[in-house]
Amino acid sequence: MEKEFEIRQKVKVIAIPPYVKTAEPMPILRPSSVIKLGEVGVVIDRRPGGYWGVLFQKGAFLMESQYIEVVKSSENNKDTTEHI
What we know:
Order of helices and strands: EEEEEEE
CATH architecture: Roll
CATH topology: SH3 type barrels
Strand order of the largest sheet: 3-2-6-5-4-1-7
Strand content: 35-45%
Number of strands: 7
Pfam families: CRR42-like
InterPro entries: CRR42-like
CATH class: Mainly Beta
Distance between the termini: 29 Å
Oligomer: single chain
Largest sheet: 7 strands, antiparallel
């Protein structure tokens, strides 16, 4: 069962994929080191193929739901994407 998220919902990285795709019109593969385990981002859109566009500190990337989970409101995080 695939997880569902809402636009503007905060999510955190719970597993690092082997690589990440940028959330640009022409996605580019980037090394997984551009995101960190536990990093918090904001869901910006839903993409085909089970991907979610997520804005992190170093840019927007396409993430599969198995690699992210919703940030609980009680969690204390270092979110740097408050400008959204």
